[in-house]
Design goal:
alpha+beta, about 20% strand, binds adenosine monophosphate, binds zinc ion
Length: about 120
Amino acid sequence: MKTAGNPDCLFCKIASGEIPSESVYSDELVYAFKDIDPKAPVHILVIPKEHIVSAAEISPENSKVISRIFEVIAHLSKELGLDRGFRVVTNCGGEGGQTVYHLHFHLMAGRPMKWPPG
Ligand code: AMP
Ligand code: ZN
């Protein structure tokens, strides 16, 4: 299968299907899958299929996918019955806690969330 975007990027390989994942949503712009190491009963990663490094690289040229990502998150919240609430997080850069350098939004739910995050 063809790898979109950066050939060295784990999430580009997941988005293209080259590396398997537990898919929960896919369209022409967005892919969502279960986090391999969940930190909440529901822990889904929502990513652009296009390689964008992080929130720091969002620009007028690539930002259309961000609104689609949040449409997908709203859709998933209804589909999964997350009516008690959920959290959406994007970690950006080293001190922000980012470990995979392909933009992703953590959709987490199923337990009370603490504030502020650590
Ligand atoms: P971050 O630390 O914010 O960059 O988030 C990266 C997330 O990717 C972590 O929550 C990891 O558990 C998750 N992750 C890493 N590799 C995989 C994989 N192969 N499939 C699903 N999730 C993964
Ligand atoms: Zn990528």
